[in-house]
Amino acid sequence: MSIEQHNVKRNIQTPQALAEKKQREKSKIDEFLALTDDVLSRKKKEEWSDDAFELTQRLLQINPEFYTVWNYRRNILLNGIFPHSTPEQINNILSNELSLTTTSLKANPKVYWIWNHRCWCLENVPDGPERNGVPSMEWRQANWDKELFVAERMLDADARNFHAWNYRRYVLANMPTRRPEASELAYTSRKIGANFSNFSAWHQRSKTLVGLWESGQLDPIQSRDDEFELVSNALYTDPDDQSAWIYHRWLIGSGENKSRLEREIQLIFELLQEQPDSKWCMESLVHYKRLLLQNHSPDSQTLKQECVELLSQLMDLDAVRYSRYQDLKRDLDQ
Amino acid sequence: MSTSLLVPLHVAYIRALGDSKDDLSYHLSAHLRMNAVYWGLTALLVMGHGDALDRDEMIDFVMSCWNEEAGAFGAHPDHDAHLLSTLSAIQILLMQNALDRVDVDRIAKFILSLQQPSGVFAGDTFGEVDTRFSYCAINALSLLGKLDKLDVEKTVAYFRRCRNFDGGFGAVAGAESHAAQVFVCVAALAILDKLDEIDQPTLCWWLSERQLPVGGFNGRPEKLEDVCYSFFVLSALSILGKITWIDSSKLEAFILSAQDTESGGIADRPGDMPDVFHTHFGLAGLSLLGYPALVDIDPVYCMPASIIESLGLRKGWKSLQRRTL
Fold first, then answer.
1. Least CB–CB distance from B209: residue in A7, A204, A242
2. Please, which residues have CB within 8 angstroms of residue A259's CB and are 6 or more apart in sequence?
3. What ipTM describes this predicted complex?
């Protein structure tokens, strides 16, 4: 029995098999409880020894979600080990800490506590080594660079792992020498190119672009047009994938640009002719025609009628969201 | 496969959870124990069986997790204090009518000390930040009657930074929208009376699109359905007044099909192992859907609605009407 698990299939066990399992587990339970007792009682006494440090590693290998023991391990480093170490030794210890927890990370890619420990390690890497009598950023840069690489490998294994994406953003934002934001745009292009259905990559792209627009590195008008080209490519390649449609809606925004709105409506209309059952085409057409109505042609009965017809079709085609379409229809009639 | 809710089986399942001391997984989940007790108790209350677990034993357990130095609760005796377990402890004590057992001022102090300059809350003194923790802080302060101590503008400013292009919210500024994070942000903003910070049409659209043909919800685009999203998505929609934007009978059928008809409990999806987390959120979802003979749950606090009402904390959410058998 576990408290929270995902993707674990039920297996009906015979009473005999269950009894055997309990027998096997008994020694593991005793070992785990004894180790836990040992570690927690040393913690209570504020013991910061190398022995204690070693014990926390053993315990965390068995249970990497034991957050109290991660806390204790860090406190041993802070109170017991670092005070007796040179900056160079501290750097080595932390680099080693990051190394040996990588195995655990790969086996447990969604455990918050492991990712959090990495952040702490990075933040504690000291200045150094000294160059011409002045502390450099080299140790820091080396560790942060390596962690960016770890994030990339984790995303190669699972491109939707939000822990890895969050960590990637954290590393990029805090490394001593920042990478240019434009290179992140290229990274999202790669991820999207590998799989149009990678919503996490489209999301990252939306954040990167906003940063580039606000800092003036990219002209928002030209850039948006480029994005429309990119996303329409995705829409035509796989009209069933919602990621591109959601991204497209963001690009349209509030719809103040009339010619852009009309251009995109035409594009989607043409796609609908090729894919007459495309719920996303219809849903998007309704939304964009409503934007036209609200912003540019409030009196157009034609637009209203077109929306009502599309919504009626959607109530059939996408019956799960029937009530939403019904609500939108009612809004139009007002 | 079952098409009805097997209440006695689930009550028995939850009662038996504390008896699995010969299960290794029981011990390996000690770091979640306080949360598990909250999930178990809330599930029982929703089924109308709040007295199925011993009240005194439960209160004693909660108090044994009090960390005197920190002024807050850990997940298990001798585990470090954390916001996640502190919220669960407060919720359990409230549901057991035993909040007088705690030093409210000390807990409020612990919670407030975890707010970062950016407005987000850390989970503990080691500084991991997440909008889940902001929700825990706001929820807990509200239940303790100490919400007036919070710098609301500072707190809301961080939620604003977590808003995404799809109307949703992520774990931290810049993070992808995820239904569980959407729930915590929407519920937190509801407590603070700041629902106007949300792009409601876009978010409600994104939320309605979580429903898959199989009837269950996923947590974000192109992911698998999971019973726990029955609560996270549904409660967000009910807070935003759009609970009708999903197919309730299909969702209900999905949750019911994820029941373990032999051992009791509800799993993440049909055929998988049940656990108390999914049992709790499946039942909470069914309650919001108006499933017969269940107790009303407050979607903002994820606790029995009557308790929240008696504290004067009910917000303007709408669930589906309770059907009669």
1. A242
2. none
3. 0.96
